[in-house]
Design brief:
- The complex is a heterodimer of chains A (about 270) and B (about 280).
- With about 270 residues, chain A is an all-alpha fold.
- Chain A folds into 2 domains: about 15-135 and about 250-275, no CATH class; about 150-230, no CATH class.
- Chain A has helices at about 15-20, 20-40, 40-60, 65-85, 110-135, 140-150, 160-190, 200-230, 250-274, and strands spanning about 100, 105-110.
- In chain A, strands 1-2 form a two-stranded antiparallel ribbon.
- In chain A, strand 1 (about 100) and strand 2 (about 105-110) form a beta hairpin.
- In chain A, helix 2 runs antiparallel to helix 5.
- Chain A is flat and about 70 Å long.
- Chain A starts with 15 loop residues before the first helix and ends with a helix.
- Chain B is an alpha/beta fold.
- Chain B contains 10 helices and 10 strands.
- In chain B, the strands form 2 sheets. In chain B, strands 6-7-8-3-9-10 form a 6-stranded mixed β-sheet, with helices on both faces. In chain B, strands 2-1-4-5 form a 4-stranded antiparallel β-sheet, covered by helices on one side.
- In chain B, strand 7 (about 165), helix 6 and strand 8 form a beta-alpha-beta unit.
Chain lengths: ~270, ~280
């Protein structure tokens, strides 16, 4: 279990999307999410969908991976579909046809349209977010977030941005270490006769206490040692710090920005026309 | 100035409620530039405290410590001192900050505000110095203990220190990791001319040092070459150090009347010594 932890779900490859600047990817993700909600009709939404599928194609991540991701949200998807199918109120327009199932549940052409529209939105949201995590390492994402938030320092939040990024970096670094430690403590407690797997819910939660307390104590000790080690490496809260890896937008990023801009502009136009 | 570090009449104490716990009392020590010094001592002999005093992580209550002529009490020079004297700790896991090897090694120079291109160069050189260059894109949790500790050392070397103080760097490692670290330290001392202060309770690691200090109860009880120290088995046992089995054997043989010196450590050498001594006896 420990050896195959994949952070986030990065899929190592060397595609166009992988090579893009993480900031560009993050900005595009946010833009597209906004436009998924701004699209007011099927044509506009299919434009966005086309853009997203192009992205998926250029990411060179196997479709299987995306499908795996979708499987996890299938229940939510079906739920949304059904709710919209049966409970869409048709106040403004009269449906051109309707079909009564049972118990007064009716499907109309409008509710059918709306149900699929909503489901498509959720699908697109999941796909585009997955694409970011498949093509960007958590470290790159951290750098991107730090960089994009850096204007906040002009409004007196200088330390906040740096501290946030440092916290994320350290958290990512220590997740595997702490998982390993938890495993060790669990084994140690099992060897002492702790029963972690049987009993009702409350008993099981109680059984976690002898695992959580040693874990907490050792984490505090680790934190203390790490702080000393960081001090020894001249850390003083990020003042005057320079990064080795400087983020740089490349032609790829500008191309992607341009395409996304075109699609978004068209979406707005379509919204008005139709 | 030939001493990189001068410890002058330093007293250090922990305050534990009302009672004061004096760790070091009127302690003095000079570390010569380019030397390889080993400090031996059992737990609680004050050796870890000494390590943290040397780069200004702890401040002395009385006396002062000069690093390259700068007092560690000088708050404006704090970063300068910490980049001159690097400190490596026992547990490699708790020293690594980033989840990619090269990013971690870059942490020190980044904090010092070096130029990105220079940082890149410093990181590559540091990783090559500890033979971990091919692992630069790897993540620490996939590496062995010895490899992680070498990354921690690289993180210090990247700051271009004059001196590295290692506080029991091998205590948590297996024998393979331990020998990796010791050969790395030797290489840094001999090839890169970095002053090394190695704090340990493994006597075997002191063999190749220029100078060995034995500490007990906050004091230096012996200060000499490895050969001299190792022949004084009684002293080492008195301060509670684990004497290597080979040395112990030679010591007992000598006590039993065999004409043999006790200053060797490696198994092969000891075997040869014993063989020779027995042959001599027979003649």
């Amino acid at each position: 279990m420990l050896n195959d932890i994949t952070f986030g779900q990065y899929y190592a490859n060397n595609s166009f999307v992988h090579k893009m600047d993480p900031r560009a990817k993050l900005l595009i993700l946010v833009t597209i999410i906004v436009f998924i909600f701004l699209a007011q009709n099927a044509v506009a939404l299919s434009l966005i969908a086309l853009l997203i599928f192009c992205g998926v194609f250029f990411s060179k991540v196997p479709l299987k991976m995306y499908l795996k991701n979708l499987k996890a949200i299938l229940p939510i998807l079906i739920f949304t579909l059904l709710i919209n199918l049966f409970f869409t109120s048709n106040v403004n327009t009269q449906p051109s046809w309707s079909f009564e199932l049972f118990l007064g549940l009716t499907i109309t052409n409008l509710s059918l349209y709306r149900a699929f529209y909503m489901a498509a939105r959720i699908l697109l949201l999941i796909i585009i977010s997955a694409e970011l995590t498949y093509t960007t390492t958590p470290n790159d994402l951290t750098d991107a977030i730090e960089n994009l938030l850096s204007p906040l320092k002009f409004i007196g939040l200088k330390n906040v941005v740096h501290t946030l990024a440092m916290m994320m970096t350290i958290a990512l670094r220590f997740i595997p270490t702490l998982i390993e430690e938890t495993q060790k403590i669990m084994n140690a407690q099992k060897a002492r006769g702790a029963d972690l797997e049987s009993g009702n819910l409350i008993e099981r939660i109680k059984a976690l206490i002898p695992i959580l307390i040693p874990l907490l104590i050792s984490s505090v000790r680790r934190a203390y040692e790490l702080a000393e080690a960081m001090e020894c490496r001249c850390y003083n809260g990020g003042e005057g710090k320079k990064r080795m890896k400087q983020l740089k937008y490349s032609t790829n990023d500008y191309t992607a920005f341009f395409i996304v801009f075109l699609v978004c502009a068209t979406t707005i136009a379509v919204n008005f026309i139709l | 100035m030939n001493n990189i570090i001068e410890v002058k009449n330093v007293t250090f104490e922990y305050e534990d409620g009302d009672k004061k716990d004096i760790i070091l009392n009127d302690f003095s020590l000079n570390i010569e530039r380019g030397s390889f010094t080993v400090i031996l001592g059992h737990n609680g002999s004050g050796k870890s405290t000494l390590a943290k005093l040397l780069n200004g992580l702890y401040k002395p209550a009385f006396g002062e410590i000069l690093v390259d002529g700068i007092s560690t009490l000088d708050e404006d020079k704090e970063l300068e001192i910490k980049s001159k004297v690097g400190l490596v700790f026992q547990n490699p896991d708790n020293q690594l900050v980033a989840s990619i090897v090269e990013d971690d090694v870059a942490f020190g120079p980044e904090n010092l505000g070096h130029d990105p291109l220079i940082i890149r160069k410093e990181v590559d050189e540091a990783l090559k110095a500890v033979d971990m260059y091919e692992f630069r894109k790897s993540t620490p949790h996939r590496l062995s203990g010895g490899q992680k500790q070498r990354i921690a050392i690289a993180g210090i070397i990247a700051m271009k220190p004059d001196c590295i103080v290692l506080d029991e760097p091998t205590a948590m490692l297996d024998p393979k990791g331990r020998s990796e670290i010791i050969s790395t330290i030797m290489k840094l001392n001999r090839e890169y001319n970095i002053t090394i202060v190695l704090i340990t309770h493994f006597m075997e690691e002191a063999v190749q040092a220029d100078r060995v200090l034995v500490m007990d109860d906050g004091k230096v009880v012996a200060d000499s070459t490895p050969k001299n120290i190792f022949s004084n088995i009684k002293l080492l046992k008195d301060v509670g150090l684990d004497v290597p089995q080979t040395t112990e054997l030679l010591y007992l043989l000598k006590k039993g009347g065999l004409n043999i010196s006790t200053d060797v450590i490696s198994i092969e050498e000891s075997a040869k010594k014993i063989y020779d001594a027995i042959h001599l006896e027979e003649k």
